[in-house]
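Page 47, continued from p. 46.
Same chain as before, 119 aa.
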Amino acid sequence: QVQLVESGGGLVQAGGSLRLSCVASGSIGSINVMRWYRQAPGKQRELVAGVALGGTTTYADSVRGRFTISTDVAKNTVNLQMNRLKPEDTAVYYCNAQQILGASIYDYWGQGTQVTVSS
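Result:
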């Protein structure tokens, strides 16, 4: 089992910045990718950014150039630096870890952290 705990959400004005963090604990071996998703009211959960074990990063088109995903291996943490925030970035942000054990793939989720961007 992997436990994920997010922090760093809050209320910010448009154009501001926030930094989200997600700490992983438990049986974290064989985690091959970590991702940030978000879900706005009435909308489906969407992928925001991801970082693979080898360091390859991916971003949604809507956040590319404004958000940066990074890892701190020593602290078992994945961060999401969010700059130039827009009201449409308002959502609950979830940390996700994908783990491959043999032929099985496991997905773990944090509890989510609210990000609200005011106009």
